[in-house]
């Protein structure tokens, strides 16, 4: 038996994030409880559109990108905020991506940004 929150409750929580004008910031490790740890050199937040959550998980429904990226790194995580600057930290997740080099365009493909909550099974 898996412990966790009921799927419907997880979906409700994720939907609140999805509908609160989410912006993503890149991180090179776990963003931590306040979303401030392991920030990437590239600090610009990008607007993201998440699909409706299902089974306690949601992913982006459109790609988004940074052009002329500020530094060479490998983003592994992201934080979600409700504003392009300042705002409120809403949560974090993992990102499927490759390393990037300063000056590159870095694109996050559809379904590559994943937010999930452990649900009881």
What report would you give on this structure?
It is a single chain. The chain has 121 residues and is mostly beta strands. The chain has one domain. Helices cover 10% and strands 26% of the residues. It has one helix and eight strands; from the N terminus they run αββββββββ. The strands form two sheets. Strands 2-1-5-6-8-3 form a six-stranded antiparallel sheet, covered by helices on one side. The longest helix is centred in the first third of the chain and has 12 residues. The chain starts with 6 loop residues before the first helix and ends in a 5-residue tail after the last strand.
The strand count comes to 8
Multimerization status: single chain
Average predicted confidence as pLDDT: 93
Pairing-aware structural class of the strands and helices? Answer: mainly beta
Helix/strand order = HEEEEEEEE
The N- and C-terminal alpha carbons lie at a distance of 7 Å
**Any low-confidence stretches, pLDDT <50, length ≥5?**
none
Calculate Rg over CA atoms: 14 Å
* Biggest beta-sheet profile: 6 strands, antiparallel
General shape: elongated
Beta-strand share of residues: 25-35%
